[in-house]
Fold this sequence. Notes:
Chain A is of the alpha+beta class. Chain A contains 7 helices and 4 strands; from the N terminus they run ααααβααβββα. In chain A, strands 2-1-3-4 form a 4-stranded mixed β-sheet, covered by helices on one side. Chain A starts with a helix and ends with a helix. By secondary structure, chain B is of the alpha/beta class. In chain B, the strands form 6 sheets. In chain B, strands 9-10-8-7-11 form a 5-stranded mixed β-sheet. In chain B, strand 5 (about 115) and strand 6 (about 120-125) form a beta hairpin. The chains are: A alpha+beta, B alpha/beta.
Amino acid sequence: METDRAKLDNTIAKYGNDRSLLLSMFQDIQREYRYLPKEAIKYVCEKLNIPVVKGYEMATFYKSLSLVPRGKHTIHVCMGTACHLKGAPGVLEAFERDLKVKRGGTTEDMLFTLESVNCLGACALAPLVRVDEKDFGKVNQTSVKNIIDEYKRGE
Amino acid sequence: MSVSIQRLEEIKKDFLSKQKVFQKTIRVCCGTGCISSGALKVLEKLRTALKTEGLDEKVKVIETGCHGFCERGPIFVFGENDIFYQMVGKRNIDADVSALIETVKSDKIAQNLLYPDPNDKTKKFVATREIPFYSGQQKIVLHLNGYIDPESIEDYIARGGYVALHKALQMKPEEVIDWIDRSGLRGRGGGGFRTGRKWRSCREAHGSPKYIVANGDEGDPGAFMDRSIMEGNPHAILEGMIIGGYAIGSNDGYIYVRDEYPLAVKRLTKAIEDARRLGLLGDNIFGTGFRFDIRIFRGGGAFVCGESTALMQSLEGKIGEPKAKYIHTVERGLWDKPTNLNNVETWACVPLIINNGWEWFANIGTKNSTGTKVFSLVGKVNNTGLIEVPMGLTLREIIFNLGGGIQKGRKFKAVQTGGPSGGCIPAEYLDTPVDFDTLTELGSMMGSGGMIVMDERNCMVDVARYFLNFLVEESCGKCVPCREGVKRMYEIVDRICNGEGREGDIEHLEELGKAVKLGSLCGLGQSAPNPVLSTIRYFREEYEEHIKHKKCRAGVCKPLITIKINEKCNGCMVCARNCPVSCISGEKQKPHVIDQSKCIKCQICYDVCRFDAVTIE
């Protein structure tokens, strides 16, 4: 993917060229491209005079950053304790079956990326699924299809 | 011009006089739970309806933070007569909005929106204060949650906000620390270290500048109290931090918030901007010459960053690997400078102690654990949600009185506290008063306050495996005992769950657990074996059943169970239609059969059957 250098410069400037805010910069870039393009890591690190390897270290340590392109919608199946006890593993399996991808994978049409997350903090509504910014509470294996369909219809 | 106490008084008067035009207030819970349950949609319709009826100038609708009773969302509460409406818009949104309008107009109570007693559906509660879930609580930290608009600093000030800050700034810093110390406040993030003592060490530490950090990286699965405070009453955290800054001698504060909490970031950002605008943050606060400012830092989805040293590494722009604590962070923390880190709930306690006096706080709770604690009561309990209770209440009171007992009338098995660092407490200890020390004695810990209730359909070996898997994923990998030890423990427990357990596995787990505890660098590793060790301690027979008899009594561990259809089946075909692998066959109105060779044990058939015809063996 072609990265827009002017935009990257803006992001760096937004955080005052402050190296300690590298994570925030990466998060902004990821929001723009839905992943962290390698060129962007290289460019930002060089600009800030940080070894590129430090940029990669960052990108692989923090779970919110991804080095591979993600689908248009990210599905987060919450795997917190309350969700686990109320059937989240089954919900995740149902998504895997319906989308035909494994956890962490992206569908061929680049529409969905399926992820699990270790607690979204809405435990009273377990099991919880978050698609992009929207939360679905008390999900079960049979309602998984409806959630997927809702987003497919939107295309 | 700096802010003055008179200015606060003016803001308060101005705000209250503006409220006089309203005849009614409706407080709408806009916490994350209620928003996921559809609160915003109902709210939008309500606003439109009020406008159509010409009532929008007379009724004030407040979008508040979390009310705590997430199970029953969306929640709408009428301010004046405390009418508590729950699950509004869940069945019929238009009818429910009309009912709300009726209540506005004529105080007519909509019976179908009232909260029914979970054990006696005919009994309904009208007022919030009558509902056992609320009446059993003592809200001091959450006292404004659900009342104020978290995005309005004026609302916070109108309820006495920032008066504690003014009071503290008239005191000597040492005196402020003395008050916090005498109040007995202990860190709400998990460790339970005396807050006053920590502050004093940081004040006395050499080096400058000094830093203040609020830990809002609430990573414990099953816990969301910090989130609710950040979203519902952000100014309480800021006020506490400014007071802390003054007491310790620091001018810079950071709030570290989880990446998974976008609403908390939004509300804290707004709160900081507003506080700066009024001069409550910045130079010369209350004309005392004291300067303080706060910045927000978003985490990157790493659990280990909730550990203080890892959090500070992350703040410095590095990866969040913990450091050994030979030297405490109060002496050398962020950028090797003295740093005082507290959990957001701890910070929110500070203004209360300054306002009401340390004696007041010390009188709540138990001797060595003073004050209240916010818990997230979740899992297989009827009333899930957020509660605040005085320390020393028993587990039974919390789970059965406030929580309304176990869902579907099933049997209580255990309660898990302390997240992945804690343990599972069985039924025989239900009468234990909950405080920092008793939970530790039981092999668990307070942690940040997650309380996850389990019933007979939860397998304790599976729970242990769950936490180990969590810790394997979240271990930062810096030290070997945690990185490798926990993984080996996971492999053993996974084997047991798969029916491949061997004689000696339990002893091996205990031995490994001890080694990981002893050898790990940070709190994450040192407490990682707790979920396994505590389940072995209290539920050893379940481990043995898995190993010797290849049996999972809860019906959770897939390789150990068989799903069958019994003679109760009337051939309604619902299970066959829902089976993802089409392994259920049979004619209409005749008992169906599961093809065991194809069955993936997803248990959908069990969930959808309304005739108890599907059994798990």
